[in-house]
Amino acid sequence: MQIASFRPSDDRGEWRVNAAMASTLMTPVAAAARLSAGARAVLRSNVPFASMLGISRSQDSISMRRGPDDPDETIVVAPRQRSPEAAQLLTRMLSLDREFCARRVLDVDQLLDLAQERLGAAPFGADSALHLEGIRCLAEAVGRDGAYDDLGRYMASHYIYGWIERYVQFEQDLAEVPDIVEVSVARPLFLIGFGRTGSTFLHHLLALDPRARAPRLWELQEPSPPPRPETYQTDPRIGRLRAQSEFRAAVMPDLHKIHEFALHAPEECQLMMWHGPQHMILGLRSPDYWQWFRHLDRSQLELLEAAYKRQVQHLQLFHRGGHWLSKSLAHAHFLPVLFNSFPDARIVRLHRDPCQIIPALASLIAQLQISYTPRIDFHDLGRRMLELFEQSMERMMQADDVASSDQVVDVLFDDLTRDPAATIRRIYTTFGYDFSPEFETRMRRHLQTASDGRRFKHVYTLEQFGLSHAEVMARSEAYLAWVERRTGANLCRS
User: Fold this and answer.
1) Which residues contact 369 (CB under 8 A, 6 or more apart)?
2) Strand-pair partners of 347
3) Is the pLDDT of residue 8 over 50?
4) Peptide bond preceding 374: is omega within 30 degrees of 0, i.e. cis?
5) Average pLDDT in the 175-203 region?
6) For residue 393, what are the contacts with CB-CB under 8 A and spacing of at least 6?
7) Which pLDDT belongs to residue 176?
8) For residues 216 and 321, what is the distance between their CA atoms, to the nearest angstrom?
9) 8 A C-beta contact, residue 194 and residue 392
10) What is the C-alpha to C-alpha distance for residues 34 and 312, in angstroms, rounded to an integer?
11) pLDDT (tens digit per residue) in 101-147
12) Which of 72, 37, 25, 52 is nearest to 250 (CA)?
């Protein structure tokens, strides 16, 4: 069977699906593929899509079957280029939405029109100008970047369309239920650390507290309508996420081995933030966009943080908890203004040797970037990760200027992994949260189960990404000295 291809239909740069291939794709897969909230047709789990891709399925985890000649699947390294199989799957997925493919690639106005044709008009608020300026900047940055190929630009356009759909639906919900902004968000707990600092591990443990309200991936991807407690465990969006996870595992078979995805597990809420480093972390090369974000002034950051708070209120309209629990590196970049929107916020900052976490996050992002670029420039990726680390830690240190001592706890990776229960007790004692017997029981049971699970070895080096130990140490000097003053710990022992 021929694989779908894209070709320019005219000199304006508009892209259309190869018509001959599109006709062959109208199979059960076509009926099942979720391409948009507007279509609501979703790679549904009752369609044999998994078996067609050679995917082994279980209730909460996805893994790819490998042949006897494949390399050791317990070793995970960053991919250097997109595989032909991944390109075929991505092209097929895109070809299923003919209306999307008929729009000019990376044209935000055309994508806005498409979303509102499918979902209805959105009554954009006063702050929409900044939000739309940012997404246009992202689209333009991708369009100018020579690292993307035609498929990658179309995938980036698909990503941006997903952003637009969520934005349109949220604005509609806010107009229909203005009381959303009255929902209380008391003593929220934010976990902030660079990638690979143990934040996912800690997040999953803290989410076991019955009083914690930690968003799940399915509600982050499809937040509208706001979830309800009576259907929270059976919401049809969970099934749609399962099918999407199968597709992701087929395209990026090593990703789940180094970053845990589970249908009912909490996930970091960067999808709730309209702008920030998350677009780069999720695989989009966009240095021009990053410069746009970095140059936002304080009032603009306040506007974006207030918009994030409204989304927190939106998800908790019907289904609430004792405290909101959120994890994202993106929060670091809003710390100068975070307490304006969340005056009683609690912050946990996570720390680990930068010589470990910078190449580790670069390796993880390489897994995601193959959807957008046919090859990975490791040295460019390493430079961008070092820059992101410097800027993130600079913002993270600024919390000392705006928060009281009982609002911030610093957690070292080694302490967390050595005794997670003691670490969480310290966090709860400092912040005045109730460490209930039920929470402790759930946590210890989870730790025991996790210790029995399979482990994969994630292999990476600084040199692989064009960095050296001396360079990272020099550029981390201020941060490392600050951590030592606060905790007494030397993060870098070598």
Assistant:
1) 283, 284, 285, 376, 381
2) 190, 408
3) no
4) no
5) 96
6) 194, 332, 476, 479
7) 96
8) 14
9) yes
10) 25
11) 999 999 999 999 999 999 999 999 889 999 999 999 999 999 999 99
12) 52
Residues 6+ apart with CB under 8 A from 4: 17, 18, 21, 22, 25, 91, 92, 94, 95
What share of residues in the chain are helix, strand, coil (percent, to 5)?
Answer: 55, 10, 35
Torsion of CA 175, 179, 180, 185, to 10 degrees: 160
Contact between residue 179 and residue 332 where contact means Cβ atoms under 8 Å apart: no
Instruction: Tell me how far apart the alpha carbons of residues 299 and 443 are, in angstroms, rounded to a whole number.
Output: 40
Radius of gyration of the chain from its Cα atoms, rounded to whole angstroms? 22
What single letter denotes the amino acid at residue 444? Answer: R
Q: If pLDDT is split at 50, 70 and 90, which confidence band does 71 have? A: low
Is residue 198 within 8 A of residue 419, CB to CB? The reply is no
The reported pTM is: 0.86
Could you give the CA distance from residue 416 to residue 262 in angstroms, rounded to a whole number? 22
Nearest in space to 224 (alpha carbons), one of 425, 407, 38, 465: 38
Backbone angles phi, psi at 340, to 5 degrees: -70, -40
pLDDT, position 230: 97
Annotate 72-109 with DSSP letters as a single string.
Answer: PTTEE---SB--HHHHHHHHHHHHT-HHHHTSBTT-HH
The tokens of 429 are what?
A: 């004692």
- From residue 174, alpha-carbon distances to 130, 167, 324, 342 in Å are 18, 11, 20, 20
Q: Across all residues in the chain, what is the average pLDDT?
A: 86
- How many angstroms separate the CA atoms of 64 and 250, rounded? 7
Question: What is the rounded distance in angstroms from the CA atom of residue 257 to the CA atom of residue 89?
Answer: 20
Query: What residues are paired with 395 via a beta bridge?
Result: none
Please give the Cα distance from 201 to 196 (Å, whole number).
10
**b/e string for 328-366 if b means 16 or more Cβ within 10 A?**
bbbbbbbbbbbbebbeebbbbbbbbbbbbbbbbbbbbbb
CA distances for 255 relative to 149, 158, 261, 347, 457, angstroms: 22, 20, 9, 28, 12
Number of neighbours of residue 186 by Cβ within 10 angstroms: 12
Cα dist from 167 to 128, 228, 348, whole Å: 9, 20, 29
Distance CA 33, CA 97 (A): 9
